[in-house]
Amino acid sequence: MRIRELQWEDFHPLVENYLALYEEVKEHPDLGISLFPHPPTVLEETEWFARVFKSAHSGSGVAVVAEENGRAVGLCDVQPKGPQETRHVGVLGIVVARGQRGRGIGRALMQGAIDRCRGKFELVELSVFENNLPARRLYESMGFRTWGTLPKGVKRNDRYINLVFMVSELK
Ligand SMILES: CC(C)(COP(=O)(O)OP(=O)(O)OC[C@H]1O[C@@H](n2cnc3c(N)ncnc32)[C@H](O)[C@@H]1OP(=O)(O)O)[C@@H](O)C(=O)NCCC(=O)NCCS
């Protein structure tokens, strides 16, 4: 497994990994990542990928991929929170393909992303479902601390889940 910058050829595997979350959530309704009400279209995925790719390659954001046997199996990206006086804050997202989790890929991805955030962002923030204990444990061990909780911040079908906000100040 190696951690590297996002490349154009990662489009198909990353879209497949993302769309697979819609199957996973049917089996595991507690899956700790927020999804659109319907799987994104190819056009929406293309727009998303182009935005992340451009941000990483122009230097405004960060996007790293975990590659296993020549295929992207995980992505961690950090995007500026806003264009104006919040641009020193990066917003982090991470996902590892089902079947590849629990092998250290998430930790390596986060480390790779955070290393690339130094000099670019001063704070890195993220939000996580309160019941997503594997993710919260990972974030805490990477130096993130909880600064707030939005009660009922996620509504999945008719069920609410609290949304926990975490931040890490980069030294
Ligand atoms: C959260 C996620 C990115 C972690 O990636 P991963 O590759 O499984 O994580 P790692 O194998 O690197 O494990 C890192 C740490 O996470 C925690 N962890 C991972 N799996 C765990 C589990 N099943 N139970 C408890 N803690 C767990 C542990 O602290 C672990 O550190 P350790 O191995 O030193 O004990 C991955 O599970 C994932 O993509 N989940 C679905 C999408 C998602 O929840 N994204 C986050 C949205 S905020």
Rg to the nearest angstrom?
A: 15 Å
* SSE order: EHHEEEHEHEE
Structural class: alpha+beta
Strand content: 25-35%
What is the annotated CATH architecture?
Answer: 3-Layer(aba) Sandwich
* Span of the ends, CA to CA: 28 Å
Give start-end ranges of low-pLDDT stretches: none
Number of strands: 7
Distinct bound molecules: coenzyme A
Strand order of the largest sheet: 1-2-3-4-5-7-6
Assembly level: single chain
Description:
- A hairpin with an 8-residue loop joins strand 3 (71-80) and strand 4 (89-96).
- Helices cover 33% and strands 35% of the residues.
- The two termini are 28 Å apart.
- The chain contains 4 helices and 7 strands; from the N terminus they run E-H-H-E-E-E-H-E-H-E-E.
- The chain is globular and about 40 Å long.
- It has a single domain (2-126), classed as Aminopeptidase (3-Layer(aba) Sandwich).
- The longest helix has 17 residues, at 11-27.
- It is an alpha+beta fold and 171 residues long.
- A 7-stranded mixed sheet has the order 1-2-3-4-5-7-6, with helices on both faces.
- The protein binds coenzyme A (COA).
- Residues 32-33, 94-96, 101-107, 128, 132-135, 137-138, 141 line the site of coenzyme A.
Briefly, what is this?
With 171 residues, the protein is α+β, with helices and mostly antiparallel strands.
Characteristics:
171 residues, alpha+beta, Aminopeptidase, seven-stranded mixed β-sheet, 4 helices, 7 strands, 33% helix, globular, binds coenzyme A
